[in-house]
Amino acid sequence: NQALQSLGRINPADAAKPEAKAEIAYYKAYSEGRLALAGSGKIDEAGKAMTTYLTANPNSYHFYQGTLLVADLLVKARNYDVALTFYAQLEASPFAEYKMRAGVGKGQAMFSQNKLPEALAEFEKVLGMSNVKGDQAVRQQFAASLGKAMCIANQGKPDDAIKMIEDTVKKVSPEDAELMAQAYVALGKCYLLKPDAKKQALIA
User: Fold this and answer.
1) In a 10 Å sphere around its CB, with 0-12 CB exposed, 13-18 middle and 19+ buried, how is residue 46 labelled?
2) What is the pTM of this model?
3) CA–CA separation, 35 vs 200, rounded Å?
4) What interhelical angle do 43-56 and 18-37 show, nearest 10?
């Protein structure tokens, strides 16, 4: 919101260079997209704004970040098939972290369509990239572990999934609220797949 307020005080016509106008367009579209993903913006409008930017600036250094945002917006809009085409562009990038993020995104999209074997294969692919280092790589490995656990749980093995999530949680800092939240939401969903485990689900 603050970014959009700041951008709103800029008249794009005052930007002398095309590069400056492009930067304004990108950060406006990106901010709107992040708001839409968080539930307080219009998904279609945000996706269209970023797609327009990417089409006009195919060589931008923002290309992969913008592509990722469009893919995530498409998943939120349940337009899974088109989302997969954007994730495929990320997979073709030279950057391992974007390849991992694409794999997680594809897995989540397939899981949402109940394509469990296909989703599991995508999560396994990301988990196989254990040689990639860095904070973002750790986060994508974590997300892939949770995705794999959810696939296993929905294939009739919630106990195996619960153990997998509990083991995964031990590998990250308990102060990382975002990752902990993801883990315990997934844990709760696994417990809901068990008979008479609603109390454990509520606790998670």
Assistant:
1) buried
2) 0.87
3) 32
4) 150
